[in-house]
Write a structure and sequence with these properties.
Helix content is 67%, strand content 0%. It is elongated, with a radius of gyration of 21 Å.
Length: 124
């Protein structure tokens, strides 16, 4: 009897927790289908709300991906630390050319560089 009551209580707590999560997401105004692979609201949280559009995020990802490809192709024999620093500087310049009001912090750009590097085909 006690086990049955405990199961019902846990189910009610689970439903309340999920309802609260949905409430928080709706209150914040975040539409999950608009969040481009989770990048928009986690990595690029420095952008203004008007700048964090799907199109702008695609442009940022393209810019960083192009820089990573350039660095990986031209500096094959260098250390990963050197390539990451170089890609960071080139990515900052590339993102500045996109003309956003706010700058994206270095840590966010480094995460994007690492993400782009993970998708870059290995060169052997």
């Amino acid at each position: 009897m006690a086990q049955l009551i405990l199961e019902y209580v846990l189910i009610v707590i689970l439903v309340l927790g999920l309802s609260y999560l949905i409430y928080i997401v709706k209150e914040k105004g975040v539409r999950i289908e608009e969040d481009y692979y989770g990048v928009g609201y986690t990595i690029l949280d420095d952008l203004a709300a008007s700048e964090a559009t799907t199109e702008n995020i695609k442009n940022i990802l393209r810019a960083v991906g192009t820089v990573v490809q350039l660095v990986e192709c031209n500096y094959k024999d260098e250390t990963n630390g050197f390539k990451e620093k170089l890609a960071l500087e080139l990515s900052k310049d590339s993102i500045k050319k996109l003309g956003f009001r706010y700058n994206i912090n270095d840590e966010s750009i480094i995460q994007l560089i690492r993400l782009a590097t993970a998708f870059f085909p290995s060169i052997n």
